């Protein structure tokens, strides 16, 4: 059982974490025809927008209420009203999703009250567009906290008890640590058993790198408002990651049975999901899945020669940290250092003596003597100083392409992740060359154009 500690430094050095409002807007990007709106200064939104654009290499729709000194002091009612009306006029989204920032939270803006007045005043103008608000102060919590708060807000706003259940409809509440490729893999796993998955949010339909037929100023696909409302009629809901426990509990409160998986990376974790799908569908696992499972077992046998005994330092959000650390541990590696961004019940179960809520400087200091640094792209300088390889995971990864298509869940994803980790170690093995073996004295002298005079054995011609 890991001990969870807090860094006592007065400031963050090379920050590891990202803010709650950015996590909330990231969740809103997984909704169809939606415009995320940060209630704060232009700088708050611009920073998050640039970070996501560099990570996904895609256009990211995101707006701001553009608070300044005067509006911050007097209150942001006018800014929210103007922003909502402009968004409705120019983009006409199905949903305007507002996330607060530290600026407006410190001021104490009553956004729910503002929206009540705005809806009453502009009911006709705003017809056809829903508005949802989530409180996400960025001076507490981190990225996955904002995502979790956004999903809970969506469920609270749009999900009401249903009279009937739709047979075969399976809701999925994915955590922020899953990539669009991960969500696509989960979808295919569920569909393999003849079930119909509904993912909320669904980044696999909005940030998977596809090119739309027509330009749209809002999100390019994702879960619709109908999908969100339809969660109440699901036969069962699968939540992925401890961060989604609150959202799952909200659904259980309206009568929807839920199962929470703390991770889907690893053999036992995927087996548990497959067992649940077999029970829900009444069907056995198809031959294709059995073959994938066999491939994963073989990958584990091959990979343990390269991962076993290796010391790994990991810096990531709690749920991603737990998934990666658990796999490293199962492959015989040692999680020698673990640093995360925010508190979570899952941290005590990370297979390492202690987990620190800190920054990348903390991770670098604890990674001395390790064989691998595992974190996002901001860890590249630390890896260079430590002279160890960097394995990129999480957000942001602005110095690589294809981050949205990294797969680490299910049998196939775990198999590929093992191969990537093992190949990282193989690529950084010392390659022996001629200089690794000292030449005999006579050969060295001959190579230098001279002749050795000591310890030379005479050659007698035959």
Features of this protein?
462 residues; Rossmann fold; 3 domains; 4-stranded parallel beta sheet; 14 strands; Nase/OxRdtase_comp1
Report on this model:
By secondary structure, the protein is α/β, with parallel strands linked by helices. It folds into 3 domains: 18-140, Nitrogenase molybdenum iron protein domain (Rossmann fold, 3-Layer(aba) Sandwich); 166-286, Nitrogenase molybdenum iron protein domain (Rossmann fold), CATH 3.40.50.1980; 293-427, 3-Layer(aba) Sandwich (Rossmann fold), CATH 3.40.50. The protein has helices at residues 20-28, 42-56, 69-74, 77-90, 102-107, 111-121, 143-158, 180-192, 225-230, 245-253, 267-281, 287-307, 318-330, 360-366, 380-386, 410-427, 441-447, and strands at 3-6, 34-39, 63-64, 95-100, 130-134, 166-173, 196-199, 234-240, 258-261, 311-315, 334-340, 354-357, 372-375, 390-392. Strand 10 (311-315), helix 13 and strand 11 (334-340) form a beta-alpha-beta unit. Helix 7 (143-158) runs parallel beside helix 10. The mean pLDDT is 94.
Total domain modules: 3
Annotation field: number of helices: 17
Helix content: 40-55%
Silhouette: globular
**Judging by the overall fold, what is the CATH architecture of the largest domain?**
3-Layer(aba) Sandwich
Q: What is the count of β-strands?
A: 14
Q: Might you state the CATH topology name of the largest domain?
A: Rossmann fold
Report the sheet-strand fraction: 5-15%
Strand order of the largest sheet: 1-12-11-10-13-14
Terminal CA distance:
75 Å
What is the CATH homologous superfamily assignment of the largest domain?
Nitrogenase molybdenum iron protein domain
Query: What can be said about the biggest beta sheet?
Result: 6 strands, parallel
């Amino acid at each position: 059982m890991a001990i969870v500690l807090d860094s006592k430094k007065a400031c963050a050095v090379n920050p590891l974490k990202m803010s709650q409002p950015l996590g909330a807007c990231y969740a809103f990007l997984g909704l169809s025809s939606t415009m995320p709106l940060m209630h704060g200064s232009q700088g708050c939104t611009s920073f998050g927008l640039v970070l996501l654009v560099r990570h996904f290499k895609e256009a990211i729709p995101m707006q701001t209420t553009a608070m300044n000194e005067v509006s911050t002091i007097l209150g942001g009612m006018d800014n929210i009203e103007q922003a909502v009306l402009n968004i409705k006029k120019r983009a006409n989204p199905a949903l305007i999703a507002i996330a607060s920032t530290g600026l407006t939270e410190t001021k104490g803006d009553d956004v729910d009250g503002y929206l009540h007045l705005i809806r009453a005043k502009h009911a006709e103008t705003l017809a056809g567009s829903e508005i949802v608000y989530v409180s996400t102060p960025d001076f507490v919590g981190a990225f996955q906290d904002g995502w979790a708060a956004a999903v809970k807000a969506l469920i609270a706003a749009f999900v009401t008890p249903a009279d009937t259940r739709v047979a075969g409809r399976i809701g999925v509440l994915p955590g922020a640590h899953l990539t669009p490729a991960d969500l696509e893999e989960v979808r295919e796993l569920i569909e393999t058993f003849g079930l119909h998955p509904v993912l909320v949010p669904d980044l696999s339909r909005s940030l998977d790198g596809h090119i739309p037929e027509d330009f749209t100023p809002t999100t390019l696909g994702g879960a619709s408002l109908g999908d969100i409302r339809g969660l109440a009629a699901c036969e069962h809901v699968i939540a992925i990651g401890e961060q989604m426990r609150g959202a799952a509990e909200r659904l259980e409160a309206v009568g929807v049975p839920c199962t929470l998986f703390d991770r889907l990376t690893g053999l036992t974790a995927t087996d548990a999901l497959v067992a649940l799908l077999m029970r829900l569908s009444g069907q056995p696992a198809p031959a294709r899945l059995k073959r994938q499972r066999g491939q994963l077992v073989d990958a584990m046998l091959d990979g343990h020669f390269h991962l076993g005994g290796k010391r790994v330092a990991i810096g990531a959000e709690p749920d991603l940290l737990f998934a990666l650390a658990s796999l490293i541990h199962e492959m015989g590696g040692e999680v020698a250092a673990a640093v995360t961004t925010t508190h979570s019940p899952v941290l005590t179960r990370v297979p390492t003596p202690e987990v620190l809520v800190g920054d990348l400087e903390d991770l670098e200091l604890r990674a001395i003597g390790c064989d691998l640094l595992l974190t996002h792209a901001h860890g590249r300088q630390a890896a260079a100083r430590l002279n160890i390889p960097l394995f990129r995971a999480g957000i942001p990864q602005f110095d690589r392409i294809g981050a949205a298509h990294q797969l680490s869940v299910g049998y196939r994803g775990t198999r590929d992740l093992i191969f990537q980790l093992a190949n990282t170690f193989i690529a950084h093995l010392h390659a022996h060359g001629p200089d690794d073996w000292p030449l005999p004295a006579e050969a060295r002298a001959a190579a230098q154009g001279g002749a050795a005079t000591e310890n030379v054995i005479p050659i007698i011609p035959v």
